Structure formats: structure tokens, C-alpha cells
Amino acid sequence: MLSTTARTTLGRSKERGSTDRNDLYDVLDTGLICHLGVVVNGHPMVVPTGYGRIGDTLYLHGSTGATSLRGGGESEVCVTVTHLDGIVLARSIFHHSVNYRSAIIYGRARPVTDPEERLAGLRAVSEQLAPGQWDYVRPPSRKELAATAVVALSLEEASVKIRRGAPKDEEEDYGLPVWAGVLPLVTSWGAPEPDPLLPEGIDPPVHILRRE
Amino acid sequence: MLSTTARTTLGRSKERGSTDRNDLYDVLDTGLICHLGVVVNGHPMVVPTGYGRIGDTLYLHGSTGATSLRGGGESEVCVTVTHLDGIVLARSIFHHSVNYRSAIIYGRARPVTDPEERLAGLRAVSEQLAPGQWDYVRPPSRKELAATAVVALSLEEASVKIRRGAPKDEEEDYGLPVWAGVLPLVTSWGAPEPDPLLPEGIDPPVHILRRE
């Protein structure tokens, strides 16, 4: 079950809320980037960044110089992952909507200092964006590791919203001579584009070619 | 030219920054949703939502009951729009990256009360997600308009970051027998899915069928 704190109890569109922890894992595990929200000098700041999940912990990484991770000790963050699945075209402007799956996680970002957890966290972030690459390419050097900040965020306080399916129109609008339905948004991988500096004879490995 | 306040002057990856206002318009005009950051009780909150642009003003809408827009008068917000274009697969884990185009806008959200500007703002938000629909379906009723909050955000304080092209690896890694390049992420529209309640004989109009 997902938590039901004041922040994660949905005020509106309750029917779109999910309290199934597997829905949370699913939204996170099928995503590529998140939007990380922090408060800097009292103002909100939202930056896109990578993430990875191990069990009920989310890991984020960044340059040690990045403002968004420079909270100094623990800092309150909000991490949002959104999949946009389609545009819901209703019979009235008011009922236009989108089909989506989104997760919002609130909590304190904990700087990860333990070397083993740091490496595991970085691996999770890397494999989320580029599965199979951690064991395929050159691993991080000591210097590269030192330049990378890793923070952890518990998935304790999270909410999931999902909207699927056809528009919901006003009763009296169903008779209008207007097409209604969903225009699906499809995301797919293109053909791998080799680095112009790649020597001839090196083909992309299966984990890149066959990525789902 | 884009502004160069402390918040929008890039600290890192300066070579990815753009100061061309047309890049800002381009990132915004080709996006579908943004991530809106606000501060609620001192904590960051990031929610996905629609938006629309008219000149140098961004419009957002929401239910009048939504926490994210309930700032009460003007409130500081951050709006981020991100396009993820591909995964940059380098010869080392450290230089893995993503190709992307993102815009971050900071400012005070101004509640829009003037009826004409409200309607124009709502039209912009609607046309961004579902172009052509405003003139095709039933327009908003007075009651529906009253239930919708519209806020405006100036594009004065904005930054744009763009990364394109091949990985940048360490000199000594170029000799590794490792494939490197970009795995492009492609977003496209699927075939329109009619509402099961749609009467027979109503076909999708051209602006839906031929959407780019």
C-alpha cells in the first residue's frame, strides 16, 4: 500500500489515484527521466535528471557542483515521473484531458556516502537510462566517482495517478456530431547512430540493438 | 536574448546553454506538458500539467481547487519543459548522457482575471495539447469557465539547455573496443482510437488524423 499523508492524499480526481505499490514501481521502472523539485532561497526549482530504483529507495546523481543537489546535508525534495500516453479528445473543450501515468515522491534527499551504496546507486541510475551498459563499458574511475554526488530518497511518501481510456463527456454532449476518442502518443527507439569517431567493425551489442 | 539572472546563468555545462530566444520558443512550442514547481508549506511540489504560449507569456490552467495553483495571489513558480531526444552511450559510464532540449522558466504566477485574457490563455493551453479542437468542439460554458483557474507567467526569466550529438569521451577511451553513439528516442502519434460511445459515421477530422 502507498502512504496516505496529507501531501499524497489526492484532493481532486480521486478516481485516478492508485494505492497499489506495484503501480508505483511500474511507473518508475518504465520511466527514463524524472523532474526533481527543490527549494532554493525560498523559490522552487525544477530540473530534469536521471534516477534509478533499488527496492523502496530512489537514487539520483549529479555533479557535486549542481545547485539542485547542493542542499547541504538533507533537503526536502519532490521527484515526479510522468508518462504521457495520449491526448483525450472530448466533445467539449472542458473535458479534454490526457492519458498518463505519473508518480510523485516527497521526502528528504539523503546524501549517500557509503562507497558500496554509492556504487549500487550509480549503477541503478545508469541501468535505468542505459540498461546493459554498466557491465559493457569502462567503469567509473576513483576520480570520476569523487566528482559525482549520489542522493537517496525513500519511496515511503508517494502517490500515483493514472488516467486511461476514452473521454468522459457531459450527458448532453454525446449527441454532438463531433469525433471523440484518444490520440495515442507512442515512444519508441530509433536505429542506433554510431559515433562518427567509432572505428569500423564495432557493431552495437544486442542490449542496445534490441532495447525494448 | 534570454535573461542572465543568477538563477538562469548556467553554472555547469555552459556549452549546452542557449541564449537565443527562438530556442526557448521552439522548446516550448513543440512540447506537450510541463512540470510545474511550487513551494507548499516550505516544501517543493512538482506536478505535470498543460500549458500554452502567447508571445512572451506562458499560460497554465487548472481546477480552482488545485493545490498547485492555490498560491493565493501571486506565487513563485518554476516551469520546466523537457524533450528527451536520445540516450548518449559513451565508452565509459561517467560520460553517459542524454540528448535533450529543456527550458526552465522562473517567475511569479499571475492569476488571470480579465475575461478576454482568460479565454485567450485557455485557448492557448488547449491548442498546445490538441490543436484544432478549440474551433471544432463545444466551447466552454460560463460554469465551466468559472471552475477553471488560469495563471500567467512571464518568459522574462528563462534558460534553455540543449545537448545534441555524439558522446564526448576521454581521449584514452577512444581506443576501447566498445560501441559508442546515440540511441534516439522517437515520439509519434498512433492511430486515433474512437470513443466506444461514438455513433457510427463520424470520422476523425484532418487536424487529428494528420497531426504532426
From TrEMBL, chains A, B:
<dbReference type="InterPro" id="IPR024747">
    <property type="entry name" value="Pyridox_Oxase-rel"/>
</dbReference>
<protein>
    <submittedName>
        <fullName>Pyridoxamine 5'-phosphate oxidase family protein</fullName>
    </submittedName>
</protein>
<dbReference type="Pfam" id="PF12900">
    <property type="entry name" value="Pyridox_ox_2"/>
</dbReference>
<dbReference type="InterPro" id="IPR012349">
    <property type="entry name" value="Split_barrel_FMN-bd"/>
</dbReference>
